[in-house]
Design brief:
The protein has about 160 residues and is of the alpha+beta class. The protein has one domain: Winged helix-like DNA-binding domain superfamily/Winged helix DNA-binding domain (Arc Repressor Mutant, subunit A, Orthogonal Bundle). The strands form two sheets. It has a three-stranded mixed sheet. The protein has a two-stranded antiparallel sheet with strand order 1-2. The longest helix has 19 residues. The protein starts with 10 loop residues before the first helix and ends with a helix. The protein binds zinc ion (3 copies). One of its GO terms (cellular component) is cytosol.
Length: about 160
């Protein structure tokens, strides 16, 4: 799948594709994509932006799907642990995975003006980090690569 990048694209297709991959992956691996878990993924997929757990909870509550924080947290945990979503440490928020079903070391480009988040292939950066860590005898358990800056659209706005 091509990276979505910051370009405008057929986002309805994008949502449909991600939900389809989640449905299929869960079916193949005997995982339960419950109504709440699926709806939380759908909520995260609405925009390519990171969302806090409380924003997700607010939406669930307004739809009558649960009003207790653990409902949202447990669904987010499930989505993150199975690779359907990622946690953005820098923002303490969650974003739907742009390449579900693929093994990857995600790297996030976060626009500080419009809060767009793009998941870029992070493998080269993760590999370089792995080499440095090994040289120092460090065993990496988890890597988070996140960059903040301006997306192409926001750069244009500044220069206009
Ligand atoms: Zn999209
Ligand atoms: Zn991903
Ligand atoms: Zn932006």
């Amino acid at each position: 799948m091509d990276p979505i990048g910051f370009q405008t694209h057929d986002h309805a297709h994008c949502i449909e594709n991600s939900l389809g991959v989640a449905d299929q992956t869960c079916r193949e691996n005997g995982l339960q994509l419950t109504a709440v878990r699926r709806r939380v993924l759908e909520i995260l997929l609405q925009k390519h932006c990171a969302m806090g757990a409380y924003e997700v909870l607010d939406q669930l509550r307004s739809e009558g799907m649960g009003s207790q924080p653990p409902v949202a947290y447990r669904a987010l945990d499930f989505l993150v642990s199975h690779g359907f979503a990622h946690r953005i440490e820098r923002l303490n928020a969650f974003v739907a995975c742009a390449h579900p079903g693929q093994q990857h070391a995600p790297c996030f480009l976060i626009c500080t003006s419009c809060s767009a988040v793009v998941e870029a292939p992070g493998r080269p950066a993760a590999e370089a980090l792995g080499i440095s860590a090994r040289e120092l005898g460090f065993e990496i358990e988890r890597v988070a690569i996140e960059a903040e800056g301006k997306c192409p659209r926001c750069q244009e706005k500044v220069n206009a």
